[in-house]
Amino acid sequence: MIQPCNQLVDTILTGRALGAQALEVYALFLPVNSFLLAVSCVLSKGVQITSSHMVGKGDFKKSNEAVSTAILVGIVIALSFSVTCFVFSKQMAHLLGAGELTESVSDYIRAYSIGITPAILLDMLMCLIQIEGRRRLAVLGSFCVLFVNAAGDIANICIFRKGVTGMAWATSVANSVTFIFLGVFFLTRSRLYEINLRSFSKKTMMLIFKNGFPSLAYYGSLVIRTAFMNMLIINTLGRDVLVSMLVFTNYGTIADVLIGGHSDPVLVMGGILYGEKDQKGAGELLKTSIISGTVMMLIAAVLTIGYSTPLAKVFLNEKDMAFVPQAGRALTLAAFYLIPDMISCIEKKYIQAIGNGMYTAVTNVIYNVICVCVIAVVLVRFTGFDGLFLSFTGCYIIAAIVNSVYIIFCSFKRFKTQGENVTVYTVRDIDECIRVSERIHKYCNNMGIEPKRSYYLGLFTEEIGKNILAYGFKKERNNSIIIKVMILGDRITMSIKDDCVLFDPTHYYDTMRYDPENAAGGIGIRMMMGLSENVVYTTGFNLNNLLIEV
User: Fold this and answer.
1) Separation between Cα atoms, residue 65 and residue 198, nearest integer Å
2) What is the β-pairing status of strands 481-488 and 491-498?
3) Contact 112, 173 (CB under 8 A)
4) With contact defined as beta carbons under 8 Å apart, do 545 and 495 qualify?
5) Short-list 315, 314, 299, CA closest to 258
6) pLDDT of amino acid 4
7) Which of 110, 392, 425, 514 has an alpha carbon within 20 to 30 A of 247's alpha carbon?
């Protein structure tokens, strides 16, 4: 969500300080921005899904290989696009239909190109930080880039006075500063990843592209959709409607922040649950996210309809108040697409997380290009201005219905195990915890696992389970612990998932192991960390998820 939020900040400050013509420059640039988002997301979402699948299976070596490969490929691709945008900015401006604004659009593209490489790598880092469960760091990084970007925009308006081009410079600086900050922290403090660019793998690269292709198709189709809508507006409704479309699009950016807050965890947690072959858990994840997302979008829709005119004024300065009634009408119509957009996006991320990227990629193109553009042409012909914006609602309703049908009838086939031995237990009290510990020990012995590893798994079950029961359970809630043991070849992974108080034992271990005053504290956690091969903690939707490789 970093790039869309930057887009929102730029639009508001550009409209308020520089006027409607500067907004037109920004509107003409949006297809380029969507294309760069497509390139960024094919890598960031591709490595996020690939890594989460590997983490879910307990294959941490492959997860590291995927991340190292993605970073190397990202550097090469990002530098290539940055150079291309800088050198061919004027040609790109002509293709975008800039006309008399060609010089302004060209200058904007050049300034923006400087920050393309850090922007793409920053997007990748943010996805990996989510897998690690470092929510505070992710929030801090998001605020950092927004604050630096806003500060740069204000400095441009008040001090440097470089017009709309200065706004692009501010975005480039913000992406660069935040990438350096998070990059240093990630390389030195990551608990899950060890970056080694020499571990590049062509096979892993193709898997990343395969998993990220739906995101490429989505944002790539937005390039076509945005360019088509701009041309439709210029040829049928007049260039002035570009301002309303930009306000509509950037209001959609606010909605995307809310939608991303629900759909991105589905992509991460869904990928891990798919790696664990936990169909029930994945179904609960989908159900919970759709219900909470629908409630949130219903509230947002009501507020949007009630405050559409004041919201439109946020994007425009006093000299451009003539655009407010039209932009306010566009925002009122935008309220109708919020709920179906939320539902269809959550469903799409779920389908992508469980490994069916081709379905998501194909439907992204169909909905974002064919469906919405055809509906827009028809509705504009019969209803004019309103039809342009109502076309999005029609498109998202169709998408939500089709995705729901696919999930109900087809998604369960993706969870069939292939050569994996999995056993699952539920724990709700101390006695049950002890019984499950004994059963896991016996199960591992029966599966031919060496006695030492069998003993460790039983021991971890009892120690960690007792800790969760003692410190995490709440009397007013019906908490439970789901313990799963997965055996795939020589690799054995235990997953301990609970809906109790959020607690990261790996972070606790890092903070207390060098504390001489707490030498006897956290014995169970010390034991787990010392006897296991690898331990990874992730969180999402208020669930603790601990993966232990023995």
Assistant:
1) 9
2) antiparallel
3) no
4) yes
5) 299
6) 66
7) 110
SS3 assignment for 443-504: HHHHCCCCHHHHHHHHHHHHHHHHHHHHHCCCCCCCCCEEEEEEEECCEEEEEEEECCCCCC
The structure tokens listed for 350 are: 């779920």
Q: Which residue has the tokens 């608990």?
A: 191
Annotate 352-414 with three-state secondary structure.
HHCCCHHHHHHHHHHHHHHHHHHHHHHHHHHHCHHHHHHHHHHHHHHHHHHHHHHHHHHHHHH
Which residue ranges in the chain fall short of pLDDT 70?
1-4, 133, 191, 412-420, 475-476, 513-521, 540-541
Rounded Cα–Cα distance for residues 362 and 350 (Å): 15
Burial of residue 470, with CB atoms counted within 10 A of its CB: 0-12 exposed, 13-18 middle, 19 or more buried: exposed
Distance between CA 483 and CA 426 in Å, rounded?
Answer: 6
Q: How many CA atoms are closer than 13 Å to the CA of 372, on its beta-carbon side?
A: 27
**Going edge to edge, which strands form the sheet with 421-427?**
421-427, 481-488, 491-498, 543-549, 534-540
Paired tokens of 198: 């020499």
* Cα-to-chain-centroid distance, residue 371: 24
Q: Is the dihedral of CA 323, 325, 329, 335 positive or negative?
A: positive
Residue 418: predicted pLDDT: 47
Position 419 scores a pLDDT of: 45
Question: Are the beta carbons of 212 and 43 closer than 8 angstroms?
Answer: yes
**Quick one: tokens of 480?**
């439970």
Residues 6 or more apart whose Cβ sits within 8 Å of residue 264: 1, 130, 349
The architecture in CATH of the region 421-549 reads 2-Layer Sandwich (3.30)
Q: Which two tokens stand for residue 200?
A: 């590049």
* Burial 69-83, CB ≥16 within 10 A → b, else e: bbbbbbeebbeebbe
Please report the pLDDT score of residue 188 as a whole number.
Answer: 81
Integer angstrom CA distances of residue 230 from 240, 249, 356: 11, 12, 32
Q: CA-to-CA distance for 503 and 500, rounded, in angstroms?
A: 8
> Which residues have CB under 8 Å from 405's CB, separation 6+?
none
Dihedral, CA of residue 353, residue 354, residue 357 and residue 363, to nearest 10 = -90
pLDDT of residue 9: 80
Token pair belonging to 215: 């995101």
Contact 33, 7 (CB under 8 A): yes
- H helices present in 156-277, as ranges: 163-189, 202-232, 241-276
Polymer length in residues for the chain: 550
Whole-number Å distance between alpha carbons of 285 and 276: 14
Per-domain residue ranges of the chain? 2-414, 421-549
pLDDT the model gives residue 273 = 79
How far is C-alpha 61 from the chain's CA centre? 23
Q: Which helix (H) or strand (E) holds 540?
A: strand 534-540
